[in-house]
Amino acid sequence: MSSVTTRNPSALQWLWLSLAIVVLDLGSKALASSMLSYNLPIAILPIFDLRLLHNTGAAFSFLASEAGWQRWLFVAIAVVVSGLIVHWLRQTEPQQKIQAFGYAAILGGALGNLFDRIVHGYVVDFLSFHYAGWYFPAFNIADVGITLGAIALIVDALFLSKDRSK
To answer: CA-based angle 39:43:44, to the nearest 5?
Structure first.
C-alpha cells in the first residue's frame, strides 16, 4: 500500500526572484569590475556616478577598517540568515505575496553579497548617489534587493498582517 503525502503549499515558489537578483547582482558586479577603474567616478547624472569600490565591512562600511576577521563573521551571519529566510519562506502561505516578495528579495541580496565575501573578501559596490558634496554610501543590486525586501516586510507587518489575523 502506498501512502501519498501531501505537501502544504508555501511561498518557496518565490525563489525565482532570489535567483534573478543573484544573477543580476553578480552580472552587474562583474561588468562594473571589468569596465570601471577603482574609485574613479563616471558621471551618469549630476547626482549619480558609477564608482567601483570594495567594501570589506557591512552596510555603510560598518567594521570595514578591521583586520579581516569581519569577513568570516559576515559570511556566518549571511549563511544563518539565508537559512532562516528559506525556512520562513517555507512557512509563508503562497497568497502572502508581499511577505514572500520581501523574504525572496532579501535572500537574493544576501546570497549575492555572500558570494562576493567568500570569493573576493569584500563586496563590490558601484552605484553612487551624491548631492552638494554629500555622498550616500555606494551600493549594488544585492543591496537594492535587501532594501526593497525589508520595505516589503515592514509594509506587510504594519498594514497587511492585521488583515490576516482577523
So the answer is: 130
Choose, from 25, 49, 116, 125, the residue flagged as catalytic.
125
Residue 125 known to be catalytic: yes
Q: Which of 25, 49, 116, 143 is catalytic?
A: 143
Provide the grid cell at 77: 551571519
For position 60, what pLDDT does the model report? 56
HEC-encoded secondary structure of the chain: CCCCCCCCCCHHHHHHHHHHHHHHHHHHHHHHHHHCCECCCEEEECCEEEEEEEECCCHHHCCCCCCCHHHHHHHHHHHHHHHHHHHHHHHCCCCCHHHHHHHHHHHHHHHHHHHHHHHCCCEEEEEEEEECCEECCCECHHHHHHHHHHHHHHHHHHHHHHHHCC
The domains of the chain are located at 12-160
Q: What is the pTM of this model?
A: 0.87
Respond yes or no: is residue 156 known to be catalytic.
no
pLDDT in tens, 127-145: 999 999 999 999 999 999 9
Query: What separation, in Å, do the N-terminal and C-terminal C-alpha atoms of the chain show?
Result: 41
